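Hi, here's the filled form for the chain we discussed.

Project: internal
Contact: R.S.
Residues: 260
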Amino acid sequence: MTQTLKAGDFTGLAKDYSEHRPDYCPSVLKALLGLISEPASDVDFVDVGAGTGIWSRMVFDAGVKSVTAVEPNDDMRVNGIADTQKTSIRWMAGSAEETGLSDASADWLSMASSFHWADFDKATQEFHRVLRPGGRFTALWNPRLIEVNPLLVEIEAHLDTLRPNIKRVSSGRSGITETLTEQLWASPRFDDVVYLEGRHVIEMTVDRYLGAWRSVNDLRVQLGPDKFESFLDFVEKRISGLKVIEATYLTRAWSARRKD
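And the returned structure, exactly as it came back:
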């Protein structure tokens, strides 16, 4: 693929995103549900910036009352609809700042690996409007914990040889996550901020590991098409001959209660 993308535009990446991106730590999901005042079977859940619905499907499978997935990108939303045909998940076009949802229509609203693209003030104002009294907003990410695997450290380090001081928009361990706890506590719209994290290990095939890299937006934007393809070639050579790549992921979640 030689398409040049804009930051945050996942058009053309949805198929790889849907097929190869990992799910989130199941234990973190259970803990987040435990913060909701209602039992799961009574929870109306909204996933904003749902992408292709990886997190939406996990919450649906946990047995909540309803799931609405809101996604602004047509390509991602179309793939998400196709991936959730066997569920009752409802899909809508919308953004964090303008979800298109009714007032007080959700008990739990989340943004999974997407809140770093949102305007904090406008989005939290919108989420406060959509949530019912006592409802919760959760922002979560699923970064790789590459330090536990020297091969993955080597692959990541190669990026700096292609572009020194390359910056990830948010790996879930940088950017907005560095100040999110304090930002949420300082918000006039939310309180009771809780932070959770949990690890889980995924054994990826070579194809899936390469596919996960192909679905990344921020590296394509910073490296450009030629250097990004060069990076993929390097990755493919380094993992050649391996049956699986053991990737550890660290689900990090911030949950805040709607302030009435």
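Let me know if anything looks off before we file it.
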